[in-house]
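Why does residue order matter? Because the sequence determines the fold. Keep that principle in mind as you read this record.
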Amino acid sequence: MNKNNQNSSRPALSNYVFRPEFSSLLILIVMFTITAILQENFFTLKSIVRNINAFAPLILLAMGAAVVIISGGIDLSAGSALSLFTCVLTTVMKKSDPITGVYAILVTLAVAILVGVVNGFGIGYLRIPPVIVTFATSYIWLGIGLFLRPTPGGESVEWFRIFYNPGMIEGIHPYIKQFGRVIPPALILILAACLIWFIVSKTRIGRHIYAVGSNSESAYASGINTAKVQMQACIINSIFIFLAALFFVGQNQSGDARMGDPLTLRAIASAIVGGVAISGGKGSVYFALVGALILNFVNKIIFFADISTAYQTLVSGLIVIIAIAAPVAYTLYSKE
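Structure:
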């Protein structure tokens, strides 16, 4: 009797303990606690705003990477696309003409959708492996970025700082400045990304993304246009990258054809650490945010603990391994 009770209770407990999301949350709590101990002013408003600004780009890219991975693909061109978008923004904008900021947003959004279409067309319609498609397009986006901006620079209208810090804009209303100090624009961009995915996840597109990622052949047999769904996933990813580009240009007031390179693999790693299955079809886009927070906290811990930055990659790699091993351990445990 007791043995049967143990066997019946163990799967219920393991359903929570061995889920990738549980291990991600556990790691996040540990990282958060260590950072709070090491950083004396961690809970001050100024420090919180700085952390949100520092974490936002990776969070946005990780959420986009999660969408593509869930659909059964992967994006190795995210960093190059981010760089390209900053170059387009700072090429279209003219500092002397504020209205060009609006034109730049519209043009860059169109470019972002085009980037998603190109990646999605190669993956979905041409049926080229996602790694090959996005690895190739990463060089295309880099080449276009270098053509537009051979060296970091360009122009940005003054009001574009609203995507980073409204307080830096001359003549802006004091209430807007105060609002920007309490609710940083980076947080608004993250919430915008969450809202976009919330809406998408409630539609057929969201359900189809999971279905195609789980089993594309079965999804196709059930009448789902798998190629179209993969393209839609790539477009959503590009829109999230576009939001990150707005933040970077608002912060730096310039574009750079290579500034996004380090974020590509970190975005993929963040999604995996957040519990998104690299095989596709499983995971939460929201938990990719958790994965991005974990990797960002790793950097802060290394900095405040005065540890050599050479260990940053090592620690990040170990965390990724732990995150991947959790669902495998659950599978083996549940078969016993």
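The radius of gyration is 21 Å.
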